[in-house]
Amino acid sequence: MKIKTPKNYIQLLQRITALEEQLTTGIKDHSFSSEKAGRFPK
What we know:
It is built from one helix and no strands. The protein is mainly alpha-helical. The N and C termini lie far apart (51 Å). The mean pLDDT is 78.
């Protein structure tokens, strides 16, 4: 069964993946900087 994928759907997927990458890197940067500052000692 073939499903036609509209262009805007593909653009949406690309935008979501880009957002996910930004989120993951942002969380990594945040945890790294907070560990550096020593706000959240393990």
